[in-house]
Amino acid sequence: MQRAALFGGGDAQMAAGDLGELLVPYMPTIRVPKSGDRVYKTECAFSYDSPDSEGGLYVCMNTFLGFGREHIERHYRKTGQCVYLHLKRHVREKVPGASGGALPKRKNAKLFLDLETNGDLNGDDFEYEDEAKLVIFPDHYEISLPNIEELPALVTIACDALLSAKSPYRKQDPDSWEEELQASKHAKTLVQLDNGVRIPPSGWKCSKCDLRENLWLNLTDGSVLCGKWFFDGSGGNGHAVEHYKETGYPLAVKLGTITPDGADVYSFDEEEPVLDPHIAKHLAHFGIDMLQMQVTENGLRDNDIKPRVSEWEVIQESGVKLKPMYGPGYTGMKNLGNSCYLNAVMQTIFSIPEFQRAYVGNLPRIYDYSPLDPTQDFNTQMAKLGHGLLSGQYSKPPMKSDLIEQVMKEEHKPQHNGISPRMFKAFISKGHPEFSSNRQQDAQEFFLHLINLVERNPVGSENPSDVFRFLVEERTQCCQSRKVRYTERVDYIMQLPVAMEAATNKDELIAYELKRREAEAARRAPPELVRAKIPFSACLQAFSEPNNVEDFWSSALQAKSAGVKTSRFASFPEYLVVQIKKFTFGLDWIPKKLDVSVDMPDFLDINHLRATGLQPGEEELPDIAPPIIIPDDPKDRTMNHFMESLDIDESSVMQLAEMGFPLEACRKAVYYTGNLGAEVAFNWIIAHMEEPDFAEPLVVPAFGGATSSGAAGLGAVGLDNQPPEEMVAIIISMGFQRNLAIQALKATNNNLERALEWIFSRPELEEESEPALDVMDMENHANANILAETGSEGPRIKDGPGRYELFGFISHMGTSTMSGHYVCHLKKEGRWVIYNDLRVCASERPPKDQGYIYFYHRIPS
C-alpha cells in the first residue's frame, strides 16, 4: 500500500500489517452508521461539491457529514475528527474497439455512489468509475479501498455501511414519496354519517376557534377543525385531534389540498398520513365532486389542454431561441420534483442586495460559527444556497479550449451547470405538512414561510426581511353611527384583487365564451383562447375600496351592525411585493385560476395610498369590549367564547395569526403585553414558544381562577420585588438599557404600558444611561441564532417614498397552485433574464402581464 500526501507529493511504502497500527489511535472515533443516521455522501454541508467535483467529497467517519476540499480543514479544526472517507467519481472516455466503436466496458461494475450520471455525456462514449479511500488528517495519509484483509474489522464494516447507506433525501425523491404512504385500514369500511352536512368551496373556519388555515375535514361527520401546532409557526390549536379523541372518527382530509390527483389524508388512529383509495366517494358524501376533476398525464383536464398551451408557451418563451447565461448570478437550480416554486422564490430572494450581504457577505463568519451539524442550521444553508447561486462556481460556459483538451486526454472533467437544493429543501420544509411533500405548492405561501424562518433566525444586527415589512393602517367604520376605529398591522405582501368587471375586451370575451360552448356541444376543438385584459389601475382601485366587515360589533351601538374597512399604507417598504389574487375555488370545488392579463407597470407610484390617520371631524368608536357570552356547557366557560369580553386588540391578534401562530397564543401575547401592538406581542411569542401551554386557551383569574405561565411571568410581582424577566426583555428589545427597564417597572408596579410612559416622560434618564450593547459588536455565537438581550433589533420599518420600479416577477402555469409550473424573470444588468429551473437564459419577451407575484424596489428620491 501507499501512504501519500493528498495535496502534495511524496510516496512511502507501508506493510499491510502497519495499516492496523496506523488506525489504532483513531478507532474510538470511527462509528458504524445505524438506522436513523443521516449519511451525506453526495453533497458538501457548506457547498455544492460532490464526488463529481474535482476535489471529490470527504465524509467524516464519526458524524457522516460530507465536505468538499475547501471546507474539510474547517471541520477537522472544529471537531478534531481525523478519519474521513474520500469519495471520487471519475468520468473517462471508453477505449475504441477494433471496429471503431467504443468498448462497452466499465472498470468498476459497481457504482457504489448514489449519483446521477451527467446528462450532457453520451453513455456510449464515456464510462464512470467510483473511487473510495480513507484519508487521515492532519497528514493526509491515504489508504485505498477495498482493503478488507488489511484493515481492522470495525473500519471495514463502517466503510461498507457508509457506502451502502441510503440517501438522507429519500423522502424528497419523486418516485419514493407515494410509496411511503400506505392505504388506511379504515378507508374501505369508513362509516359516514348521513347528517346533511355540505362543505362549501371556500370560507372555511374551525368550528371551535374560528381559525381559517390548516383546516381538516373529518370524513365521518363533516366537522371542519384546525390541525396541530408546528415548529415553524404554522398549524392550529389541535381541535381536529381533540375531536377524534372524543368521537373516534379516524380519517380527515386537509382542505385546500384537494386536487384531481387526490388529497392529503391523515389517520388519527394510525398516527400518520395515509392514502384513501375511496377519497372521491368520501368527499362526494359532503358535496365535493372530484369525479369531474379527471386529468391527463400532463396534469391538465382534457378541456383545458388547448387553452393552456398558450400560457405555457408564452411564460416560458417557447419557440424563441434564448441565449444561455452563465457566471455569477446566473446559476440554475434543479427541480427536485415539483420544487419549481422554491427555485423561483429563492432566485428572486438572492437577487436582492440586502439578502446577499446578510448571508453571502457574512459567509465566512456564518460558517466558522455554524453548529456541529451545519445541515440543520438555517443561516448556514441560506449562505450555502446564496453562494451557490452568486459565485458562478456552478455556472460555467463550455469553453472551446476545454473541449479540445478533453478530446486529447483520457479523463473528462464534468461541466458543473446548476445546483441541486436538496439539503436546503430538506431543512426548511422539515415538519411542515405541505413543503415537506413532493407536491406542487403555492409560491406566495412559501415566500411567507421563508420570511418567518428569516425572522426567527437573525444573522446580525439587521434582519434582511425588514426590506419587505410595512405597516398597514386599517380604518373600520360603523355604518350606522359613522364612528371609526384606526388600527395598524404588519404585512409583507400587497394582495391585489382581480377586477374582472373592468376588463377592456368584454365583447371579445363574450364572443369567445359563445364559441367555446358551441364547440363543446358539437365536440369540436375549442377556439383560440381569449384572455381577459384587466387594467392595473382597476386592481389598485379595488384594493383601496372599502370592504364589508363580517359580524361587526359596534361599540357605539353596543350591538352588531354593518361595518366597512379600508386599508392604507402606514409605511412603504424598501421592496414592495405585489400578489395578483388569481386563484379561487369554483362552486363545483374545482380549483380555478383566473386566466387574465394585467398590464403591470414598470414604474409604480402608490403615494396616494399613504395613511392619514384620524381626520378632523371623525369621532372614534368607544373602547368598549363586547359582552360576555357564557355557553351552555360549563366546561367551555374558560374557552374561546369568553375571550371576546377581554380587553384584547383583535387587529394585533389577527396580524400575528396571519403570520402562522396559533390563535390562542396570539390572544395571550397581545393580552399579556398590554395591547401595545403586534411588534411587542411578537417578542412575547418568541420568548414563550417552547412552553407546553403555548397554544392553550387563555385563562385569567377573573374567569378560571388560575393563570397560565405567560400570566404568571408578566402579571405577578415576584417575592423579591424584582420585575418579571419577560417584561424586562420586552423593554430591552425596544432599545432601552436593562437598568432603566427595571427602574421603570418598579416605579409602576410592573405595569408594562405605564412603565413605557414613565420612560418616555423622562428622556434625561435615557440619555444618562449607558448605551445598549451593539449587536454587530458581538461574536456570532451559535451562528447568531440568539439575539443579544441588551441589543437593539434596529429599525423594523424602512419607510420612505412610495415610488417603485419593477425588477422581478414569478409566473405560474397551470390550473391551480397545487399543480403546474413556476418560473421567474429578473432584471439584471439592464436586461431581463428567465430562470426556468436549471435553464437560465436572456429573456426576449418577458410576459410581464401574466405574472403571479411581482417584486418592486424603491426609487431613491
From TrEMBL:
<dbReference type="InterPro" id="IPR013083">
    <property type="entry name" value="Znf_RING/FYVE/PHD"/>
</dbReference>
<dbReference type="InterPro" id="IPR038765">
    <property type="entry name" value="Papain-like_cys_pep_sf"/>
</dbReference>
<dbReference type="GO" id="GO:0070628">
    <property type="term" value="F:proteasome binding"/>
</dbReference>
<dbReference type="InterPro" id="IPR001394">
    <property type="entry name" value="Peptidase_C19_UCH"/>
</dbReference>
<keyword id="KW-0863">Zinc-finger</keyword>
<dbReference type="GO" id="GO:1904288">
    <property type="term" value="F:BAT3 complex binding"/>
</dbReference>
<feature type="active site" description="Nucleophile">
    <location>
        <position position="340"/>
    </location>
</feature>
<dbReference type="Pfam" id="PF17807">
    <property type="entry name" value="zf-UBP_var"/>
</dbReference>
<feature type="binding site">
    <location>
        <position position="209"/>
    </location>
    <ligand>
        <name>Zn(2+)</name>
    </ligand>
</feature>
<feature type="domain" description="USP">
    <location>
        <begin position="331"/>
        <end position="859"/>
    </location>
</feature>
<keyword id="KW-0833">Ubl conjugation pathway</keyword>
<keyword id="KW-0677">Repeat</keyword>
<feature type="binding site">
    <location>
        <position position="206"/>
    </location>
    <ligand>
        <name>Zn(2+)</name>
    </ligand>
</feature>
<feature type="domain" description="UBA">
    <location>
        <begin position="647"/>
        <end position="688"/>
    </location>
</feature>
<dbReference type="GO" id="GO:0050821">
    <property type="term" value="P:protein stabilization"/>
</dbReference>
<dbReference type="InterPro" id="IPR018200">
    <property type="entry name" value="USP_CS"/>
</dbReference>
<dbReference type="GO" id="GO:0031625">
    <property type="term" value="F:ubiquitin protein ligase binding"/>
</dbReference>
<dbReference type="GO" id="GO:0008283">
    <property type="term" value="P:cell population proliferation"/>
</dbReference>
<feature type="binding site">
    <location>
        <position position="239"/>
    </location>
    <ligand>
        <name>Zn(2+)</name>
    </ligand>
</feature>
<dbReference type="GO" id="GO:0008270">
    <property type="term" value="F:zinc ion binding"/>
</dbReference>
<feature type="domain" description="UBA">
    <location>
        <begin position="722"/>
        <end position="762"/>
    </location>
</feature>
<dbReference type="InterPro" id="IPR015940">
    <property type="entry name" value="UBA"/>
</dbReference>
<dbReference type="InterPro" id="IPR001607">
    <property type="entry name" value="Znf_UBP"/>
</dbReference>
<dbReference type="GO" id="GO:0044313">
    <property type="term" value="P:protein K6-linked deubiquitination"/>
</dbReference>
<keyword id="KW-0072">Autophagy</keyword>
<dbReference type="Pfam" id="PF00627">
    <property type="entry name" value="UBA"/>
</dbReference>
<keyword id="KW-0788">Thiol protease</keyword>
<dbReference type="InterPro" id="IPR009060">
    <property type="entry name" value="UBA-like_sf"/>
</dbReference>
<feature type="domain" description="UBP-type">
    <location>
        <begin position="182"/>
        <end position="290"/>
    </location>
</feature>
<dbReference type="GO" id="GO:0006355">
    <property type="term" value="P:regulation of DNA-templated transcription"/>
</dbReference>
<dbReference type="GO" id="GO:0010506">
    <property type="term" value="P:regulation of autophagy"/>
</dbReference>
<keyword id="KW-0862">Zinc</keyword>
<protein>
    <recommendedName>
        <fullName>Ubiquitin carboxyl-terminal hydrolase</fullName>
        <ecNumber>3.4.19.12</ecNumber>
    </recommendedName>
</protein>
<dbReference type="GO" id="GO:0006508">
    <property type="term" value="P:proteolysis"/>
</dbReference>
<dbReference type="GO" id="GO:0035523">
    <property type="term" value="P:protein K29-linked deubiquitination"/>
</dbReference>
<dbReference type="GO" id="GO:0006914">
    <property type="term" value="P:autophagy"/>
</dbReference>
<keyword id="KW-0645">Protease</keyword>
<dbReference type="GO" id="GO:0051087">
    <property type="term" value="F:protein-folding chaperone binding"/>
</dbReference>
<dbReference type="GO" id="GO:0070536">
    <property type="term" value="P:protein K63-linked deubiquitination"/>
</dbReference>
<dbReference type="Pfam" id="PF00443">
    <property type="entry name" value="UCH"/>
</dbReference>
<keyword id="KW-0378">Hydrolase</keyword>
<dbReference type="InterPro" id="IPR050185">
    <property type="entry name" value="Ub_carboxyl-term_hydrolase"/>
</dbReference>
